[in-house]
Amino acid sequence: MKIQKKIISVSWPFITALLVFLSLKIAVRHPGFIETYYSRGFYPFIARCFSSVSRLYSFSLWDVFWIMILWLILSGIILILFKKVNIGKFILRILQTLAILYSLFYIAWGYNYFRPGIEKRIGWIKPDSDTNLFRSVLDTLIAESNSNYVSISFPEYLKIDSLIEESYKKNCSRLKISYPNGSRRPKTMILSSIYSKLGVSGYFGPFFNEIHVDSYVLPVDYPFLLGHEKAHQFGITSEAEANLSSYIICVTSGDRRLRYSGYQTLLLYFLRDASHMKDYHDFLNKLDARVLADIRFRQKYYQRLESNFLSDLQSKANDTYLKVNHIEKGVMNYNQVVSLVLSWYYNSKNY
Hints:
Layout: H1 2-27, H2 31-54, H3 61-81, H4 87-108, H5 118-122, H6 131-147, H7 157-175, E1 186-188, H8 192-198, E2 202-205, E3 210-213, H9 222-233, H10 239-251, H11 256-274, H12 280-285, H13 289-305, H14 308-324, H15 337-348
Parallel strand pairs: 1-3
Antiparallel strand pairs: 2-3
Helix pairs in contact: 1-4, 6-11, 7-9, 7-10, 9-10, 10-11, 10-15
């Protein structure tokens, strides 16, 4: 009996991880089932439970958790060197921990990777590749960026958060998300300076259902970034879909700061795709001088913060992570927001 209990205590993390792994093979073939029973059923319950705890703390539980994990690993290595801990048992505990974290990740949030894409969920007709449509939307983004320009030197973070929430509540049916889906208390990354060097402006911590924003983010970018990370909390895993969601949330708001942040951010994606066009500079010449100044300042600001080596390393790691979770384009998925925005304008005829 003791031997059986020992076997169970050792093997249950690996058995659980194996079952989760096998379930992913089924999930990828049945996105409709995932949407109905997980994304719109079980996940909102998980989000409500986890966020009701994490919202009580002003600091990031996710960051503290990983700092403790790293500290325990380093402590274990030191104890092994001094022969205070058996190396075999230490490696076993590491593997058990990894298996538990793997299972928890998918149960707490990760199954959302296998829900249908936003175009299918909403029922959009995907437009054919159309240069005229692209140009028309780009002109719209330029015109709206110009007309909504506002200088945001120091945003009222609580007010911005409230406005983003208000817009999500208003747009929940349009985006096919479950609202309120728990609570969303934005938190500053504990290691903001390191994340800035990595080129990471924000992220969602699934284990504690937490939203994080880098303290070095420019005020003009804050509304869009916050909308993006909140989209992840709502179970939108694709980076392109999170960008689209944030764009809709920002530009449909009655607040000029949100609208300018939304239009300017998407303008950058469109200009990147338009950079090969012969009349690219003609589009730039249409920009208000203040908007163009914001764009140029933004580029220089983040370039100064980033470490090229660390940023490239993080990008490769993120690329692998996204591809493992069936985001085929990897980090290029962020740029796929252009095609999603084209679909949104095409289906709403708002161009």
